[in-house]
Specification:
The chain is mainly alpha-helical. About 75% of the residues lie in helices and about 0% in strands.
């Protein structure tokens, strides 16, 4: 690890820091609003670290949901990480002792920083993956801690705070759209998701959408590779 790698990793993670601290604060406030102290917010962010699932987890805890319900909900909400993991198999193959943590800490935002990282000369790729993952989780834990403290110190309505995670996903989508000239995967994803939403409903469309998007990308792989070559 060298200074160039540390500096580049930190600078690359700054957009995530801005989002994660705010989102973590929202999570900590919501959790406190349900009667849990900030220590629970820290514990969940260290041991679970699953962004949107932690927001869902607030309702699961407060409603006394069963372990089976929690497990099924977690599978549905985080099913997309199965597909993230498949695309990172080669990148993480020789990561040594850091590999288990990198797998555990692969969130949506971390994935966006490591999947197609265009690293300058002097930046160690393995350390970049590790540092970005560590920094991103530290931002989330810090935000959760601050949110728990704010929730205990201030009294206000938490209505609407849970929309923060949705807003972050929209920002990530827009950023990815602007970075590439290849928009077919995004259009395909939106189209299939809308169709599945209409067919399966709000509660059940996620897994069918992910399966449909994967199948669509597989079938159009040749077309996408051709267009990517043309753009390059």
């Amino acid at each position: 690890m060298n200074k160039t790698t540390v500096k580049h990793s930190f600078l690359a993670s700054l957009p995530v820091m801005a989002g994660y601290i705010v989102l973590g604060i929202g999570f900590g406030i919501l959790l406190h609003d349900k009667g849990y102290s900030f220590w629970w917010a820290i514990l969940m962010s260290v041991s679970i670290y699953a962004g949107s699932m932690q927001y869902v987890g607030v309702d699961l805890l407060s409603s006394g949901a069963s372990l089976l319900s929690a497990a099924l909900m977690t599978l549905m909400v985080n099913a997309r990480h199965l597909f993230y993991g498949i695309s990172m198999v080669e990148k993480y193959r020789n990561m040594g002792l850091a590999k288990p943590y990198l797998i555990y800490s692969l969130t949506d935002e971390t994935y966006s920083l490591v999947c197609d990282a265009d690293l300058p000369e002097g930046v160690n790729r393995k350390w970049y993956y590790t540092l970005v993952s560590l920094l991103d989780q530290s931002y989330w834990v810090l935000g959760s801690f601050l949110g728990g403290l704010l929730g205990s110190a201030l009294s206000f309505s938490s209505e609407g705070i849970d929309f923060a995670m949705t807003a972050l996903f929209v920002v990530i989508f827009v950023e990815q759209w602007e970075k590439t000239k290849q928009h077919l995967p995004a259009i395909l994803g939106l189209g299939i998701s809308i169709v599945c939403l209409l067919i399966f409903g709000v509660s059940n469309f996620l897994i069918p959408s992910m399966l449909g998007i994967t199948a669509g990308l597989f079938l159009l792989r040749g077309v996408l590779e051709k267009e990517e070559t043309v753009h390059d």
